[in-house]
Amino acid sequence: MKLNNRGLLVVISGPSGVGKGTVRRALFSMPNHNLVYSVSMTTREKRAGEVEGKDYYFVSKEEFIHAENSGKLLESAEFVGNYYGTPLDKLNENLDKGNEVVLEIEVEGAAQVKEKMPDCVMIFIAPPSKKALYDRLKRRGTENESEVLARVAKANREFRSAYLYDYIVVNDEVNNAADRIMAIIRAEHAKTSRTLDKYLELIDEK
Ligand code: 5GP
Question: Which residues line ligand 1 (CB under 6 A)?
Answer without folding.
Answer: 16, 20, 40, 44, 75, 77, 79, 84-86, 104-106, 108-109
